[in-house]
Write a sequence for this structure.
């Protein structure tokens, strides 16, 4: 495991339910924890209660993420980043206006992409570490009630699988978690009314920490009530065939297209 005692750790969306649970675990391991959140009212209070540093951060803004990474790195060599800020829209595609579209893409996707961009140089200079992004099961299954949420979470999974392999040689591991419904205010009321099994916040936080402690890279971990978290196995895509020869060739050597074989 990456040694976290005395290191810097950053949690975006850190004032929220899952962010706080992850922060508690990081603190217990002796990390210096910075919570980055847009919540300028509750965020500082939450951070003070936990014993964390707080940086007001709008993850839609690349500059804010750079500043948050700098703040976290100033408290110890950065070794762990949880790109966790996220919102739901709960609107059908034909009810979605442009500002709602920009908002959810900004928080859920830009926040992860620019978070990775900001965190990697800091992790590299500290000798490596782990990034865990909060995707969702909604990134792996169709979600007619919130298609933009599903779209952004699918994109997070794709970023992790596309960027992660190139970071491994530098001792940086990039993975994401794909929880089902969690017992936080974000879980839709209808899900509670149906009595659908909900994850506890602790289930997600434990999985995040286990991934941080493990060796895996570029994986999307499914977290569901009653199941052990597992790395989702994506089906492979058949490789390109040269006309006429019937053979199968993959154009994967440079990573341009990827492998025909099932990939993690
Ligand atoms: N709760 C669930 O059912 C569930 C399921 C799967 C995945 N997730 C994902 O887990 C993550 C955390 O969810 P949660 O349940 O703790 O939600 P939450 O609402 O309790 O926490 C989200 C936090 O993100 C912050 N935030 C929102 N916009 C931001 C912005 N522009 N910049 C910085 N911070 C911002 C909020 O202030 C809040 O503190 C999210 O990415 C969510 O999509 C949640």
């Amino acid at each position: 495991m990456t040694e976290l005692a005395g290191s810097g750790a950053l949690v975006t969306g850190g004032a929220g339910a899952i962010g706080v649970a992850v922060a508690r675990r990081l603190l217990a391991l002796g990390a210096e924890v910075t919570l980055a959140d847009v919540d300028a009212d509750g965020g500082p209070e939450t951070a003070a209660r936990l014993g964390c540093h707080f940086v007001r951060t709008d993850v839609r803004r690349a500059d804010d993420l750079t500043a948050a990474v700098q703040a976290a790195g100033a408290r110890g060599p950065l070794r762990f980043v949880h790109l966790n800020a996220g919102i739901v829209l709960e609107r059908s595609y034909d009810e979605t206006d442009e500002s709602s579209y920009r908002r959810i893409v900004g928080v859920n996707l830009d926040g992860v992409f620019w978070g990775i961009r900001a965190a990697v140089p800091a992790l590299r200079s500290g000798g490596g570490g782990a990034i865990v992004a909060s995707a969702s099961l909604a990134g792996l299954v169709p979600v007619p009630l919130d298609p933009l949420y599903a779209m952004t979470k699918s994109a997070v999974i794709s970023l992790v699988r596309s960027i992660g392999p190139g970071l491994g040689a530098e001792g940086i591991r990039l993975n994401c978690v794909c929880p089902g419904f969690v017992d936080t205010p974000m879980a839709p009321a209808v899900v509670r009314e149906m009595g659908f099994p909900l994850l506890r916040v602790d289930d997600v936080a434990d999985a995040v920490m286990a991934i941080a402690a493990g060796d895996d890279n570029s994986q999307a971990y499914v977290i569901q009530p009653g199941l052990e978290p597992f790395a989702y196995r994506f089906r492979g895509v058949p490789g390109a065939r040269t006309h006429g020869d019937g053979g199968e060739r993959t154009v994967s050597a440079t990573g341009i297209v990827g492998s025909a074989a099932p990939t993690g």
The chain has two domains: 8-231, 235-264. The helical segments are 17-28, 42-50, 62-73, 98-125, 147-167, 189-193, 201-213. The mean pLDDT is 93.
